[in-house]
Design a protein that fits this description.
By secondary structure, the chain is α+β, with helices and mostly antiparallel strands. The chain is 39% helix and 12% strand. Helix 4 packs parallel to helix 6 and helix 5 crosses helix 6.
């Protein structure tokens, strides 16, 4: 909230700037702090466009259904553009979305609890794995460890020069898919998802550990 308030002060200086707020992880929150949207500040409300969806908080991945909230002029303008690009959201997905929004969050809370347990499993693994630094994530279902100390290591005569190469090495040798941090603002990191079963997470982490040990 404090950071949002500071941002509000900045945006008040630039009245022609609109704010696009991606709040797709609204419900996947591991802290005791409730979700806060910059749209809640009355002074900016008419300039905020909130984008959200059902793939994360309601596990409707692949259904490709989302929504936005904005002042009426912005919403109408977006409607004109969207009408020329997308159409035909299927009826089943729409009815499921209605149910998701109208029911309580019991199922979502149960899912978030499971994510928290998986997060802890990955954090424990990271703590026991040498040469990796990582900040504990407060939400979502990814870990973003810093793998800089593995850059420059070699395997079978090949040097791992980037995290892109490290991700490919892990994929080829451990058969585990990770994503390079260069796609998310930090080329020293990789992204590991824990949106899977605990059994598969344990297997994946074990394979990664074995692959990292092979690097010299």
């Amino acid at each position: 909230m404090q950071i949002l308030q500071l941002l509000v002060e900045v945006f008040q200086k630039y009245p022609n700037v609109y704010i696009l707020s991606d709040e797709i992880y609204e419900y996947i929150n591991f802290t005791n702090t409730p979700h806060c949207s910059i749209a809640q500040f009355e002074v900016l409300k008419d300039r905020v466009i909130v984008v959200n969806g059902f793939s994360k908080g309601f596990a409707m991945t692949g259904w490709r259904l989302g929504y936005m909230a904005a002042s009426l002029p912005i919403a109408k303008a977006c409607e004109k553009i969207q009408g020329q690009f997308t159409s035909g959201a299927n009826t089943i997905a729409q009815r499921a979305a209605i149910a998701a929004l109208e029911k309580d969050l019991t199922a979502t809370q149960k899912m978030v609890h499971a994510f928290a347990e998986r997060r802890q499993k990955v954090l424990t693994w990271l703590k026991n794995t040498p040469n990796i630094d990582c900040i504990t994530p407060d939400g979502a279902f990814y870990i973003f460890p810093n793998m800089k100390k593995y850059i420059g290591k070699r395997y079978n005569g090949q040097t791992i020069n980037t995290t892109d190469a490290l991700c490919m090495y892990i994929l080829n040798e451990a058969h585990v898919s990770t994503v390079t941090g260069s796609a998310f603002g930090n080329a020293d990191c990789i992204r590991i998802s824990f949106a899977n079963t605990m059994d598969n997470i344990e297997k994946g982490l074990s394979r990664i550990s074995k692959a990292l040990i092979e690097l010299i």
